[in-house]
Design brief:
There is one protein chain. By secondary structure, this protein is an alpha/beta fold. It contains 14 helices and twelve strands. Strands 1-7-6-5-4-3-2-8-9-10 form a ten-stranded mixed sheet. A two-stranded parallel ribbon has the order 11-12. Helix 4 packs parallel to helix 5. The longest helix has 15 residues. It is globular, with a radius of gyration of 21 Å.
């Protein structure tokens, strides 16, 4: 469930979410990811029920500001690319958070910061106002204070509530930063609660509210999660992952990973290290292409220690698309034409198998057939592949037949896709920030979907 106060066009990242490359024509991937997700730190004040950070033995640390500046410099060379401060820690705990955020904005990058709010002070928020931060997202749990404090161990609802209201009041009539709330709930927490009432209350102060189901898959072995696991995990249907086509993760130590679900930062999910390779090199690396083969073009999730527990970016996108009517109108992604001779592992010619991953086979015989694009040796469909009809939109998005390249639009502008299969002259319905789609016409279906999820369908 996702609702806006002023409509999806008000979202500073609407230009991404309305692009055909976001959840439709994402394979082959563009020349650079939509998102660079930076883990500024993996330290956190909380011990949340759902978070696998509590099981991690990875050393704690902070990203060097010099490394962050170099990352921003590269990303700024790809118009439309955006940066998110996220990861396995609380970004505001980085001792130089203000300086790093300022550097990103100085380079003209769109910037979103995820926060639990506990370290947000009036002084820091005023700095975010001054630099033009695009989006500040507050991460919550539950639909009331009791549920919040049960899930977010170590936090107090009154304190969090007051910080969100402080941000709203200090922003006043300013359009930025865009303020958003993402909360997730246990299936049992929906009983007797009205998600729309929660959204109504908060949309008086913030611009976007998303409500999802809490994922316990990564903490299924913990005693605290076990009583809720059956209801949270029932009815899951694994699908192809899309994140491997959309984003790169950079850990605080510079390691570049396929996705953000690995709290341990395992070597088998690591493409390389920033400084030793660029982000664009990592994006085209055979090891990442092997992962796309494994979980993006096939269902080889069991071959990866993290992917085997992940339904985060597989089931929920399809469920949301179905709820808002995209299932019948969306252009089928190119990956639907992929015929990978893969049985439990992604075989990419030239890819290197990584110890502990058990996923990528070297010259394993996997043959990729992508409509309109030959699989390149050592890089598969991602390396030097021609987009549909030989054209590629701005920022490397493959242009669909008859469609205006959506990512060619100016940064921050609402984009319109004309032609193609979505509808002549109609704006592509937004699927949101990994959370779904809103708009008055979709809310009823999404609310029903959220309630159905309590009976076995998992969205997150």
């Amino acid at each position: 469930m996702l609702r806006y106060r002023r409509g999806p066009e008000s979202d500073p990242f609407h230009y991404i979410f309305s692009s055909r490359g976001w959840l439709q024509d994402y394979d082959p991937p563009g020349e650079f990811p939509f998102w660079i997700n930076l883990e500024l730190t993996n330290t956190c004040q909380l011990d949340c029920l759902f978070c696998s950070r509590r099981l991690s033995a990875r050393p704690q640390g902070h990203m060097d500001p010099g490394m962050a500046r170099e990352i921003f410099s590269e990303a700024a060379g790809y118009p439309g690319a955006a940066v998110r401060f996220t990861g396995w820690g609380e970004p505001l705990l980085h001792p130089r958070i203000g300086e790093i955020a300022s550097e990103a904005k100085k380079r003209g990058l769109k910037l979103k910061i995820y926060t639990n709010s506990l370290a947000l002070t009036p002084k820091l928020f005023d700095l975010f106002l001054d630099i033009g931060l695009d989006d500040l997202q507050f991460s919550l749990q539950g639909l009331d204070g009791e549920q919040y404090e049960f899930n977010r161990r170590g936090a107090r609802w009154h304190d969090t509530e007051s910080r969100i209201l402080m941000a709203s009041e200090r922003r006043g009539s300013e359009a930025r930063p865009f303020l958003s709330i993402l909360t997730s709930v246990l299936a049992t927490e929906l009983k007797g609660r009205d998600p729309d009432a929660f959204a109504d209350r908060w949309l008086e102060s913030v611009d976007k509210v998303a409500i999802d189901l809490t994922s316990l898959n990564f903490v299924s072995e913990t005693e605290e999660a076990r009583p809720y696991l059956d209801r949270q995990s029932s009815g899951l249907v694994r699908g192809r992952c899309v994140d491997v086509f959309l984003a790169l993760e950079v850990k605080y130590d510079g390691s570049i990973q396929f996705c953000g679900q690995d709290s341990e930062g395992r070597e088998c999910h690591t493409v390389g290290r920033f400084g030793e390779m660029s982000l664009s090199e990592a994006w085209r690396h055979p090891r990442l292409e092997a992962q796309r083969m494994l979980v993006g073009r096939a269902l080889g999730h069991e071959g990866s220690p993290v992917c085997r527990n992940c339904y985060h970016n597989t089931t929920k996108y399809d469920l949301f698309k179905k709820a808002i009517g995209l299932a019948e109108t969306a252009v089928e992604p190119n990956s639907a034409h992929v015929d990978a001779a893969v049985k439990g592992c992604g075989a990419v010619h030239g890819a290197t198998a990584v110890k502990g991953c058990g996923a990528a086979a070297v010259n394993g015989g996997g043959t990729v057939h992508v409509a309109g694009a030959g699989a390149g040796k050592g890089g598969g469909a991602a390396n030097g592949v021609a987009a549909a009809n030989g054209t590629r939109a701005a920022h490397g998005v493959p242009a669909a037949k008859g469609a205006v390249p959506a990512r060619a639009a100016g940064r921050g502008e609402a984009t319109t896709v004309r032609g193609g299969d979505i509808g002549i002259g109609k704006e592509r319905p937004e699927v949101g920030d990994g959370s779904g789609r809103t708009g008055s016409s979709a809310q009823g279906g999404q609310l029903a979907l959220l309630r159905r999820s309590a009976e076995g369908e998992m969205l997150k």
